[in-house]
Each structure stands twice: as structure tokens, then as C-alpha cells.
## 1
Amino acid sequence: MLLKIGIKNLLGAGLRTWLNVFVTSVSFFMIIFMSALYDGMREHAKQVSIDTEIAGGAYWHPNYDPMDPMTFEDAHSKPPSEINKLIDDNEAFPVLVSQASIYPNGRMMPVIMRGIEPNQELINLPTKVLNTQNNSYIPVLIGRGMAKYTNLKEGDTFMLRWLDANKTYDANDGVIVHIMDTENFKIDMGQIWLPIKHLQQMLNMPKEVTYVTYKKKIPLVDNYEDWVPKDVKYLIRDMEAIIEADEPNAVVMYITLLILAAIGIFNSQVLSIFRRRKEIGTFMALGMTRTKVVSLFTLEGGLNAFLAMLMTIIIFGPVFWYFGIYGIPLPIDYSDMGLIIAKSLIPVYSIGLFISTAIIIAGTVLIVSYLPSRKISKMKPTDALRGKITV
């Protein structure tokens, strides 16, 4: 009976009901959509890092700190035997890191040299281009951002100067064999890639490496000595921190939307109680308990939330689908700012996201529907019949 009365009352309210439902459905849409965008940003940054840099994780030399180039000079040695076995089985590849200076077009620029196995297939980098045989020049692979910064093009040569293991400076000419297009700024800006054997020879560090990247879904070796294993979660922590730092802004917007929806329904319930005093008094005079009358008004608020969910599916469902397929194109390239963000943001939806949002909004709506209904429990049926509310 309460359900039938509640539906009749909502439909009888006409435009007021549908305005409340629309505002609540907008809250549904914005909360789900913005949460999905953040999840999409996180997943994209994670996937790009894994595909182009991390693979399954890495073993670091104990002195290696990628954020401190001063450690590179001492962060190299021969890997432990079990890690070497992974390299021999093509389940890992070594990287040697060192500082250097390049002189493109007469300018001096500090760079980080990374020696990598050209035939590796564990990360998505075009390293096979480094197999170029040229005894006159050092083959170098750079990213598009680095090419733009240095004003170098494919085939250009430049002077490369470095400090070897004997603390002796040496120099030679390098040639750009390929310019790769990557979204991962960490392997692009300030980085040049060389064949690892060539770099080991240049630095007088035979068979020495700085870190070893291993294949996805393989267990850690039993004995990695003093080398430090780093998993995917650790290696993408900087991306996670950047996204989490911006999430408070989204929370403010979520709360604002919830407050707007709650105020609309709260006002609607207060107005209903005021306008339906005689109706409430009649129900109570006919024997309906105060608890049932309160439940009726609370049920009407719950029906508001239910209708809002249906409206979200009907009106905003195609919007979810469209942006989930095509994404939102961004006007600028954020990779120049040191962020791994796609040129089109694609939201990532999940069943958990829809369910949690529905529970939060439905719970909020029920609470704000119940609060003004508590006044009913203090009414006297005779006063309600006369259109008078006493508390």
C-alpha cells in the first residue's frame, strides 16, 4: 500500500518530482564519469609505463637511484649469476646508465645515456634500429620530445662526451638512427639510447649493468645478492602520487553535486509535508501509525533515487558508451609537462564503481528524506486535520 501511495504522490507532484530526479541523475552521472576518468588516467599511465619501461619489474644495483644522477657513476657491476641466467634465457635484459654531454649544433646539453640490448622484446621500444653497423658513428635512439628539444632529426650527427670508469673523458660522434614516438616522458626527455655492448666498451665497463628489467609474470630469483628487486607497484608510484594529489579536487565536486541533489529532495519533502498536512492527518485518523507515515515520506525519497538511476541509464548511458569508446580529446600534449596522459582521456568503468556510487547517492537521498519526516512523529492527528502542524 505504501508503495502505491508513494508512486501516486510522486507522479502527482509533476514537474517538481522530475526536476529532483534530473538533478540526482546528474549527480550520478558526474560522480561515475569523473571517477572513471581518474581510473582511466591511472590505468593508461600504468600500462604505458609497463609497456615501454617496466615490463614485469627490475633488479637494481644497490647504489642506483634514478632520481639522483650523481649515483650513476658507482651504480654498475656484473649482475648475480641467477639474474644473468634470466638474461641468457631472454627473460630479462640489462640496461647500463651513465651521464654524458652532447653538443648538437654547437650547444652543450647534459643527457643520460642508457645502453640497452637492441634485440630485446620485453618492452615496446624500437631498439632493433640500434643494430645499425657503423664504425664511424655511435648509433643513438631518441624520443620525439628530445628531438624537438635538441633540434635534431634522423640522420643528424653530434658530438658526444662522457667520463669512463678510469675517470677519463672521451668523446666521439653520434648519429640519430631513429626518433621514436612515445607517451612516456621518462624514456624520452634528457635520454639517449645506445647499444649496451657499445656503451660498455665506451665506459670501459665490460659486462657491467645498472639494472635488469625482467619479463612479466615470472617469480623473483632465489638469490639476487645485494641487488634490489623493484616490482611494478613501486616503479609506478610516482604516477599514482600525481593522480592521487589531484583527487581532492574531484572529491570537492562530488560533495557539491551530492549537496545539490540532497537539498532539492530535502526541500521537496519539506514542501510535501507542509502541503499535505490534511492528508497526513486523515491517514493518522484512519489508523495509520506515525511510523508508517514517516516510512511513506522516506519511501518517496527512495523512489526519487530509483528514478534517478533509471534516468541516468536512459539519458546518460549513451554518453558513457561514447566516451568509453572514443574518449575526450585533450587540447595540449601533457607529456611535455612530465605527465603520462593520453591525447584522448578514456574513462574506465567498473561494476564496483556503479554499485558504490548508487549506494552512496541512495543512502544520502534516504537520509535527507527521513530528516524532515521526523516532524510527522510529533503531529497530533486533530491538528493535522485542521491543517496545523504542532511540534
Note: The CA atoms of residues 96 and 209 lie 4 Å apart.
## 2
Amino acid sequence: MKIGVVGAGRIGGLIGTLWSRAGHEVLFSSRHPESLAGLVEAAGNSARSGTPDEAISFGDAILLSIPFGELPEFGRTKQEALSQKIVLETGNPNLKRDGAIADSVLTSARGTGAYLRDWFPGVRVVRAFNTVWDPVLAKEAHRAGPRVGIPLASDDEDALRIASSLVVDAGFDPVVVGDLDRAREFDMGTAVYDTGMSGPEVRKVLNL
């Protein structure tokens, strides 16, 4: 599959690298693509770099790993370009970094998924890869098992199926929780957040 990575930082860079090594075509992006030369070399296979717009155009699926506070504007300006894409969104609201946007999300009790639905209308958004820190993901990818669980939520069943397959290819256990409203069950502060739980453990805690 062709995958565009928008936000090639700790999570985007790592997951994109795992996908590249699994045989997917990956385009990492930055406003300064030349800065990604080391990441592209480490990812190997057919990985390449480009701008965020090039990554969106390139990918059948998009890994969106940018600061949470930038999501409303990104959704507004990129909605048309993303309309036929599967978008795996990884961010978490951070009060210090994201300010009022984070505050509104964290105090609403709606959960991040409901906001993604508002900010990305008509886009096949999947909430993914937000619960486990990158050092754990890097260390535990493709372990013998049971593998680290990655909760997923989306309003699009086909997008969930494809996202699940990509989670497996990255070396983890996909845990389908439900629609975007249920993303609040694995947001920051929940019982499964930042635990490194295995897939079976996540399913048990979330009563799946």
C-alpha cells in the first residue's frame, strides 16, 4: 500500500519505518523534506520524502501525526485532498502545547474522536497509535506475543479493517473498539493509556 506520513516525528517516523520495512511504499513529509534524509535511509525499501501535500497526494492511507492543536486548521484546509483517503490520526491534546483547543476537548467528556468527526467531515478518519509511547513501540514491535495492543476507533468499517491490517504489519495487535465516539475509552487518562498492555489485556480492560 502507498502510505503518506504527515508529521514524521517520533511516532510518524517510527511507524512509517516499520511499514516501509514491511514492504509498503512510504512517503515521509516535512515542510523541509531535505531534513528527512536520515529517516528515509533508515526506513529503507522504497521510502522517500516530500512535502505534506505530496504525501497526501501519494498515499492511499495517511498517517497524520501532528500536534493536536493543529488538527482543526489542517482538517479545514485539507478536507478535499483527504476525502478519498484513510487517515490514521495519532495525536493527544496537550494543555501546555495546544492551549484552548486541548482544554475544550479535555473538559468536554466527548473524547477526541468526536472532535475528529467535526474537524474532518467526510474523511475516513481512524483514531490510532495514540496510547503507547514511541520507545515502547520501537522495542516491542513484532515481539513473539502477545503483541502490544493498539486501540482503534472509526465510523468507517472498511477503514477499520485496513487500519487493523496496517497495525499488524507494523508488528502490533489491532484492538477495534468501535466508532469515533468510543475513542474516549482509550484517550489520555484512561485505564489503557500509556500502559504498554498487550492486545488481550486491552480487550479485557475495555470489555471487548
Note: The beta strands are 2-6, 25-29, 48-50, 61-64, 86-89, 124-127, 149-154, 173-178.
